[in-house]
Amino acid sequence: MWTAAAWGALAGAALLVGAALVMVVRVPTRVIGAVMGFGAGVLFSAVAFELTEAAISAAGLVVVSAGLLLGAVVYLAGDWAVPNAGAHPRQSPRHGGSTVEGHAAVSAGSPVATPAATATTAAGALVLGALLDGIPESAAIGISLLDGGGVGLAFVAAVFLSNVPEGMAASAGLLASGRSRGRILALWAVVMLASAIAAGTGYAVLGAAGPGLLGAIQAFAAGAVLAMLATTMLPEAVDHAGRLVGLVTVLGFVLAFLLGEL
Q1: Interatomic CA distance for residues 90 and 173, integer angstroms
Q2: 77: how many CB neighbours lie within 10 A of its CB?
Q3: Which of 192, 233, 241, 253 would give a disulfide with 34, using CB separation of 3.0 to 4.6 Å?
Q4: What phi, psi does 251 have (nearest 5°)?
């Protein structure tokens, strides 16, 4: 369990790495978009070969198909709720989920929202959004250890690479809104801890589960990750880096595939 938790924490620590980067160096938006695209390609490969393929072998096509769809539906329901809590677009290096514009609109007679108040609301929603993205990934990391073959390094690398630009983008937005560096790092530390707990729990709770149930849960996690890539990560990447994203996404997919074959 502790090994699984450590791998989950490592994947979640990428958010802190991303936050630290934007605090010490100015990273061009185009670079952040390209890193997002590369991470998306790695995640696509990991979902296909580390999660879905293994799930089909364990649970069969029907169960896996249903799990993929259910994971996507649950993720999208949460993804709909997070922007309404004040964090959209949460992976944007221009906004970082903390823009006053679009979130500070008030009805007649209501008090005007201040940038600080908006940043506070967005910060909490950003944490929820990061948890929404990270918990299925971390749980899948823990599950991958159950067969005794060791953690899927390609999947851990994919999660890490996808979290770095998310930490960079959201932290840039929070800094622009007046959030202190200490509080930003504390927010991502909470998410890192939750990632560790999710990975450890996935290993401990499902240790006695049969292969069919494990396959269904892997499919659920895969569906949630695919929905995240399609609705959050790739649109933001293309918005910031343009057509270059097409190339770096394929590059990420190829490198992750080759890593998995070693």
Answers
A1: 9
A2: 10
A3: 241
A4: -60, -45
pLDDT tens, N- to C-terminus, the chain (262 residues): 777 788 888 888 988 998 898 898 887 888 888 888 888 898 898 888 878 888 898 889 999 999 999 999 988 888 777 665 555 555 555 555 544 443 333 333 333 334 444 444 455 565 666 667 677 777 777 776 765 555 567 677 777 877 887 788 778 777 877 788 898 898 889 888 888 888 888 777 776 677 788 888 888 888 988 988 888 888 888 988 899 999 999 998 998 888 777 6
Amino acid symbol at 61: L
As given in the structure block, the two tokens for residue 111 are: 């008090």
55/58 Cα distance (integer angstroms): 5
Q: Which pair of structure tokens corresponds to residue 51?
A: 């999660």
What does the block give as tokens for 126?
A: 């950003």
DSSP state letter for 229: I
In the numeric block, the tokens 């709720």 are attached to: 81
Cα separation of 42 and 119, whole Å?
31
Q: Which two tokens stand for residue 63?
A: 């169960």
Report the Cα 55 to chain-centroid distance in Å.
21
Best CA proximity match to 253, nearest among 43, 32, 2: 43
What number of residues does the chain have? 262
- 64's CB contacts (< 8 A; 6+ apart) are 52, 55, 56, 215, 216, 219
What is the token pair recorded at 29? 């938006």
Question: Cα(102)–Cα(86) distance, rounded to whole angstroms?
Answer: 9
CB count within 10 Å of CB 64 equals 25
The CB density around residue 210, as the number of other CB atoms within 10 Å, is 11
